[in-house]
Write a structure and sequence with these properties.
single chain; mainly alpha; disordered C terminus
Length: 373
């Protein structure tokens, strides 16, 4: 049964155009092709990146946070109460007024004391400012190195300037060392993001992030095995361009350099719209949708690769709508606080202030949701 599944999985018609087989992609003296077995290197790469991230956050980011005066707020600990703790963990973080009154009867506390307990307990679950700063700093550093490293690897290649060259000689295109390392590092990074999702700051678009990471890993892995490496490197470079600015805006925002953060966010919005809504669909998807048909009839890999690109494009549109709403609110109306990050609740907050902060819990405001990986 496993043998049958393996034969079906590696059936040439799934991965390669007609009249081609895996024997056509065997290494020769002057040519080296990508192999599926090389993808195993992404797991140790991901683990190494997690280790590098730990060292970076433990030492470099900590020193930077100290230099910028970034500190976690002192939070009051919620008093031990088994009844309220059980409700908080199993029912809801923000009880309705009817539930508050019911809990008051069970605990013998006043409504005011019960509400204060829930505010303090919610604050305990929120990630501290330094944790968010560390996470944004790490991503900003990685995207910066990945983007400029990718441009360095691509700028002198003919397919960087003429997209028709992407398919010249496809799929018999020799893999370059720069392409190998660019792919392995990017794949390793996205695997590390999946492995760290449980520990990173959770935002309201958590499910979209998971879908995005899985779609990206699937797309990159498939493009590697099918030797779509040239277009794959272009896809990675287009995505990394705007991510640098987004994470940089977060870093400055946490450092309370709000004017710099806001300016950078405006630039990020412009770059995001150009790269994700213009360059990606008009040039990248057009390149993968139209040009291959001039060489080969469509096959499963052609449809699958383009379907994955469309999944990413749908996510781009989703994030673009959120970013546009935030930018409109930023430019034409008064922002209540900073939507890019969540806020701690105070014991003396009014109901209006409480609702506003709950709407932005764990960065779930418009700016907090605009991850746009």
């Amino acid at each position: 049964m496993l043998q049958t599944f393996s034969e079906w999985l590696w059936w040439e018609r799934l991965w390669l155009p007609g009249n081609l087989s895996w024997s056509d992609l065997v290494d020769k003296e002057d040519r080296a092709y990508a192999k599926a077995s090389q993808l195993y290197a992404t797991l140790p790469c991901a683990l190494c990146l997690l280790l590098v991230r730990y060292v970076f956050e433990r030492y470099l980011a900590t020193l930077l946070a100290k230099a910028l005066g970034i500190k976690d707020r002192v939070r009051l600990t919620a008093e031990h109460n088994p009844v309220l703790e059980k409700y908080f963990c199993s029912e809801a973080w923000n009880p309705s007024q009817a539930d508050v009154r019911s809990l008051c009867k069970k605990t013998g506390w006043t409504e005011r004391k019960t509400e204060v307990w829930f505010r303090r307990r919610r604050n305990q679950e929120r990630p501290g400012l330094r944790k968010r700063f560390f996470e944004a700093s790490w991503r900003c550093v990685f995207y910066t190195f990945a983007f400029f490293g990718g441009i360095l690897a691509l700028y002198d290649k003919p397919w960087f300037h003429n997209l028709r060259e992407v398919w010249a000689g496809f799929p018999k295109q020799s893999m370059l060392p720069s392409q190998y390392w660019y792919y392995i590092l990017e794949l390793g990074f996205y695997v590390s993001l999946l492995l760290s999702l449980a520990f990173d700051v959770k935002r309201k678009d958590f499910k979209e992030q998971v879908i995005h990471h899985i779609a990206t890993l699937t797309l990159l892995s498939f493009s590697w095995i099918s030797n779509y490496i040239r277009i794959g490197t272009l896809v990675m470079a287009v995505h990394d361009a705007s991510d640098i600015l987004l994470e940089g805006a977060k870093v400055f925002n946490y450092a309370k350099w709000h004017q710099t953060a806001n300016s950078m966010f405006v630039v990020f919005t412009a770059v995001f719209m150009v790269t994700r809504l213009v360059i990606f669909p008009v040039w990248i998807i057009h390149c993968t949708w139209v040009y291959p048909l001039e060489l080969y009839p469509p096959f499963f890999g052609y449809y699958f690769f383009n379907a994955m690109l469309l999944v990413l494009q749908i996510l781009h549109i989703y994030w673009a709508i959120l970013i546009s709403r935030m930018l409109y609110k930023f430019l034409f109306s008064k922002l209540e606080g900073d939507d890019r990050s969540d806020e701690d609740e105070n014991d003396s907050d009014t109901p209006k202030e409480k609702n506003h902060k709950l709407n932005h819990r764990n960065g779930s405001g418009i700016r907090g949701r605009a991850n746009g990986h």
